[in-house]
Amino acid sequence: MAKKKRRASSSRTNSKILSPNRKLIVIAVNLLLFAVLSIISFFLYNISTNIFYINLFFLLTVILGFVAIALFISLLVVVIARAIKR
């Protein structure tokens, strides 16, 4: 009986490796996006009259604000890491 040929397993991964400049651009764009969305949500929170929309926009403002703060911290980490590396 003939043995089946098995393909050698490769250790390649499908994850993309981003250059430091590309990481900085991606983080900055996402930070800008979430900051703008948070400001829009805060504006809608202030002009809403229905209690459901007030609660909804307040929750969105808080969540989007925390994401923007987290992106800002990661942006600082990348910038400091680049400065130390040089």
Written overview of the protein:
- The protein has 86 residues and is mainly α.
- It has a domain at 38-85.
- Helices cover 73% and strands 0% of the residues.
- It has helices at 20-47, 51-85.
- Helix 1 runs antiparallel to helix 2.
- The chain starts with 19 loop residues before the first helix and ends with a helix.
SSE topology sketch:
Elements: H1 20-47, H2 51-85
Task: Count all strands and give the number.
Answer: 0
Helix and strand sequence: HH
| Basic shape | flat
Q: What is the helix fraction of residues, given as a range?
A: over 70%
Gyration radius from CA atoms, angstroms: 22 Å
Sheet of most strands:
none
Strand content: under 5%
Summarize the structure.
The protein has helices at about 20-45, 50-85.
List the defining traits of the structure above:
86 residues, mainly alpha, 2 helices
